[in-house]
Amino acid sequence: MKAALCRLPTSLKARLLVASFILLPLMVGVAGVALQNSFYDNLELSLEERMRLKVYLVINATAENDKGRLAAVSLSAGVGEQLPIYIHDYQGELQWSSSAARPYGDGLSYALADRPLEVDQVRFEHWQNEALFIYQYPVQWRGKGAAGRYLFTIVQPDSELKSAMTAYKLQLWGWLVAVILLSLVIQAVITRWALSPLQAMVDDLVNIERGYATRLAGEYPKEVQGVTDSLNHLLHVERKQRERYRNTLGDLAHSLKTPLAVIRGAGNEQLPPEGYRSVVDEQVRRMDQIVQYQLARAVRSQSKSMAQSTTAIAPMIKRITSALEKVYREKGVRLDLDLDESAAYAADERDLMELLGNMLENAFKYGHSHVSVTLATSQDAIQLDIEDDGLGVSPEMRQVILERGARVDTSAAPGQGIGLTVAVDILSSYNGQLEVGESSLGGASFRITFPLG
Question: Which residue range or ranges hold the Histidine kinase domain (predicted)?
Answer without folding.
Answer: 251-453
